[in-house]
């Protein structure tokens, strides 16, 4: 299924190398799960706020029966915010893809102290 993607810039211009990196990362999402319906990446710039340099990247991925969202922002460069937001999105898509295959790790015990430990 062809992936529908959109890159949105709010209160900022996205430099060419960053835009190409975003497009490349969107293309790599198919490696984790081939039934992704759409991906919207929103880059928010600092705008007129008194704290300059605060950027955020929001990645929204539509998969069957769910929407996966990952964000990253703060006082980091746009390049780092893109990398971290897509790293979080990759992990979430990979976890979603594991469930139908039955590859989900199961927790042992309830998490209470002394329980869930393997004793031989």
What does this structure look like?
β3 (55-63) and β4 (66-74) form a beta hairpin. The chain is built from two helices and four strands, in the order βαβββα. It has a four-stranded mixed sheet with strand order 1-2-3-4. It has helices at 16-28, 78-101, and strands spanning 4-10, 38-44, 55-63, 66-74. The protein is elongated. It has a single domain, classed as 2-Layer Sandwich (Double Stranded RNA Binding Domain). It is α+β, with helices and mostly antiparallel strands and 120 residues long. Helices cover 31% and strands 27% of the residues.
Give the SSE layout.
Layout: E1 4-10, H1 16-28, E2 38-44, E3 55-63, E4 66-74, H2 78-101
Parallel strand pairs: 1-2
Antiparallel strand pairs: 2-3, 3-4
Provide a quick synopsis of the model:
The protein is 31% helix and 27% strand.
CATH superfamily: Ribosome hibernation promotion factor-like
Number of domains: 1
Distance between the termini: 49 Å
Main CATH class: Alpha Beta
Total beta strands: 4
In what order do the strands lie side by side in the largest sheet?
1-2-3-4
